[in-house]
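ENTRY TYPE: protein
WANTED: fold as tokens:
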Amino acid sequence: MEKLLFFVYSIGILIRIYLNLSDFSTSIADRVEVSTPLNSWKRVIEGVSLYNENINPYDGDLFHETPLALVFFSHLTSTFSDFYVSLVFIACDLITAFVLYYTSKIYTENLLKQQTKTKHVYNKEFSKLLIPDDFSVINPFYVCSVYMLNPYTVFSCISRTTTVFNNLFLALCLYSMVKRHRLLGCLSLVLASLPTFYTFGLLAPLMISCVPNDSKNKTGSFIITFLTCGTISCSLLYLCYTIMNEWTFLDSVYGFILNVRDLKPNIGLFWYFFTEMFEHFRALFVCAFQLNASVLYVIPLSIRLRRDPLLLATSLLALTAVFKSYPSIGDVGFYLSLLPIHRHLFYFMQQAFIVSCFFVGCTVFAPTVWHLWIYSRSANANFYFGVTLAFATTQIFLITDLLFAYIKREFALKHGMKRMINGKEARLMLD
């Protein structure tokens, strides 16, 4: 397995280096599915150039990264040449894959330990549903392979989108959950949420996972985690203020995301809807869409998935990638790489083939329809929005199928595989 893992890492690195050295990287970086106003490397370079010329990059509507990121990228571009900057992005992807590998390994080992302790409450037919011991070896390999070889993450890396760094912080946050490291988890979560507030919903699974097994004061543990994240957030925001000596960056970063000021097409749902929206309805629907993308699902899913914080985190990341205002394929590729962690649920998933076909179809049709719309002028915005709508629907099917598989497995462990109604075998289906 070590040789296979080394082979996967090598192939993933070589693919990224080869594409970075080719002209293909430029055309990929210009794709609206890959680069958005929030993660575009071109906007970062222009913002850094303005900053180095002592011009406030937040005066216009160009740069939407935080001042901390501005200083970091300024030092990065001034210290390294263009090729070595690409290697920094590749190294971040490699570290993310390593972190996800160990996250999956620890999580699966914890599941196996929990399974051994709770065997006595399972139904007599539970043997088919047991997690095999080799999952602790195979699952991490699959997670690493999906992340390193997934075209979504590869394209995001060679385009130098800032999503690469965001994925690294999210991976560290997930690792902290399974290891129950409160401080590292809070720090990585705040760093991941600083450029975009959507991922702050992961505070719920982080609070749940940081509660000790023998703790009787869960509320106290929740409060400590919440206050730790709040303190770190306030400290970093004040550090951003000291860099710029003004608070205008808040509107350029968070106001831009909230108000959806740039309606350039992407793989999300906001751009088309608000292009067609009457202005006097805009405030109402902006609030409705943003609530749906940020906090609407956190509480109900936290209650239902409180025994599996990592599945809760995966679900919240997937929902965020679907509904946030400026999503990219880098966000989708990250949560797709987490699916092999939950391979024990695949037995109960019913939509895998349909979802896979739609993922492939949407990935192929998106650039095709874009070309027909923008260059050939034989299509219009409705065609491209149809593809993005199908892509979002596919992801929703995947999320609901995964969550329903968790519920079905939980039910089957307690009540057995056979379900009888009026003496006939029945099937449990999601309508």
Remarks:
- The chain has 19 helices and two strands.
- The chain has a mean pLDDT of 90.
- The first helix runs from residue 2 to 21.
- The CA atoms of residues 48 and 136 lie 44 Å apart.
